[in-house]
Amino acid sequence: MPEVNVEINGRKYRMACEEGQQKHLIGLAERLNNHVESLKGAVGEIGDNRLTVMAGIAVVDELAEAEKRIKALEEEVLVLTRAGQEVAAEIEALEGKFAAKLTDAAKALEGVAGALDEAAPVPQG
């Protein structure tokens, strides 16, 4: 199992990860370190453990907000999917009505054509 070195709050940590996940783990550690550094700039030196806990809570808060947004988007997709299905059903019904009207019009035209054929004088020749 590969290992990578990451740095959080000026300290290096050796971490194991799955093959191919090294860059991802380093990126996650960099994001956490950015939170720690941001908090350090906002609240000053408050101790490593407390700072790490605050950064972890900030990250979990971001995750919770993202989960709320995902749920709202999933609900919106569901509403839009239902609306799309209703529109598709309405279009299908309209197409059926249109096809029936076209059939009726074609029959009427055939009737007119037949009547014209019967009424037309037969050419003498």
TrEMBL record:
One of its GO terms (biological process) is septin ring assembly. Its main location: cytoplasm. Pfam families: ZapA. It is found in: Cytoplasm. Keywords: Cell cycle, Cell division, Coiled coil, Cytoplasm, Septation. It comes from the Bacteria. Gene3D superfamilies: Cell division protein ZapA protomer, N-terminal domain (3.30.160.880). InterPro entries: Cell_div_ZapA-like, Cell_div_ZapA-like_sf, Cell_div_ZapA_N. Residues 56-83 form a coiled coil. Transmembrane segments: none annotated. GO terms for cellular component: cell division site; cell septum; cytosol. SUPFAM superfamilies: Cell division protein ZapA-like. Homodimer. Interacts with FtsZ. Activator of cell division through the inhibition of FtsZ GTPase activity, therefore promoting FtsZ assembly into bundles of protofilaments necessary for the formation of the division Z ring. It is recruited early at mid-cell but it is not essential for cell division. This is Cell division protein ZapA.
